[in-house]
Amino acid sequence: MDVMKSPVSLCTGVTYDRSSIQTWLDGGHNTCPATMQVLPSTDFVPNLTLRSLILHWSQSSQSNPPVLSKQQLLDSIKKIEKTAENRLDSLARIADFAKFSDENREFLASMDGFVPTILGIMKNVDDIEVLESIMTVLDLIVSEDKVKEQLHRLVFKCDGDCLSRFVLVLERGNLRSRTDSARVLELIAVETESQRAITDKQGLLFELHRLISSEADSLASGAGLSCLIAVSTSRPVKKQLVRFGIVRTAGEILSGSDTVGAVIEKALKLLEMVSTCAEGRSAIGEDETCVAAIVKRLMKVSRSATEHGVAVLWSVCYLYRDRTAQETAMRNNGLTKVLLAMQSDCAASARKMCGDLVKVFRVNSKSCLASYETKTTHIMPY
């Protein structure tokens, strides 16, 4: 009957204190203690609503005002800057304040010294819960005016290794904080130098790929894909993603029956980027599941998704002339799909690619028919 210190929820929806459920999972259990359901994922997310209620209850029981005012916010910021004591609770209060309204986020983002203070703490702590809370706060304000530029400068230009903290959260954090991390990285990867810094950081690219390959959560997958799209601008990075298995991962995403349209669009966009290098085209051509899924999604999701899909097929089937990919596309009604796309409102460049693909598919179709007729002639004894 103790009050929870850090309430977190499993995928079953049941909430536990973080230390208690972590002990349970570390003991080798793979079930929810309350429901005994087998857990498809052992990730947990902070129950911020309950944490806020506990905080408010605690404040009320001590005759403190339950609502965080701007002055209380300033006090909380001073506390996290001066001492590590109750730092997690102070960060939770700041996050709750930012979530409450656009006005609060603007106020927080406009405060002189707030972002440097948060980044200063971030560079000097290894406590995963503190880092998770920092990622939540940064994700809430990074879109505000000047915060993005300030965050970019502090992460990439100043002393200290902030990127290692992103790796740590992506490795050990809960699903929510890993998603927040990917979103923040995407928004600060604004030019070649920062993109290279992110992709060169040991383990960071791998963890972003793991985020999209190990989670069924559309927000996590979407954030991971968006970040990879933002940073995968050079051939070495694309080759590295191919080695990680990005083609298979994207194929699985496209094949999923419950995958949302926005995630499908991003997966096709990333495949289009990967298909601009020979290693990517080869990997796509060898993955029949991926090629079939691309064809399946043409004219089914959005104009952008169709354009990305056509570009991938054009690179592999027309430019690279991959015979296996051509045959896989044909078996999955690729010619009809491409003809439909050619008559749609897609961009002119995509329609031209469709024309090239139609020629290839028709030649391949005639070749297959001639081969079939030859085999039929040879096996007829009379």
TrEMBL record:
One of its GO terms (biological process) is protein ubiquitination. InterPro entries: ARM-like (IPR011989), ARM-type_fold (IPR016024), ARM_PUB (IPR058678), PUB22/23/24-like (IPR045185), RING-Ubox_PUB (IPR045210), Ubox_domain (IPR003613), Znf_RING/FYVE/PHD (IPR013083). SMART domains: Ubox (SM00504). Residues 1-64 form the U-box domain. Pfam families: ARM_PUB (PF25598), U-box (PF04564). Pathway: Protein modification; protein ubiquitination. Keywords: Transferase, Ubl conjugation pathway. Its EC number is 2.3.2.27. One of its GO terms (molecular function) is ubiquitin protein ligase activity. PROSITE patterns: U_BOX. Gene3D superfamilies: Leucine-rich Repeat Variant (1.25.10.10), Zinc/RING finger domain, C3HC4 (zinc finger) (3.30.40.10). It catalyses: S-ubiquitinyl-[E2 ubiquitin-conjugating enzyme]-L-cysteine + [acceptor protein]-L-lysine = [E2 ubiquitin-conjugating enzyme]-L-cysteine + N(6)-ubiquitinyl-[acceptor protein]-L-lysine. Functions as an E3 ubiquitin ligase. This is U-box domain-containing protein. It comes from Actinidia rufa. The lineage of its organism: Eukaryota, Viridiplantae, Streptophyta, Embryophyta, Tracheophyta.
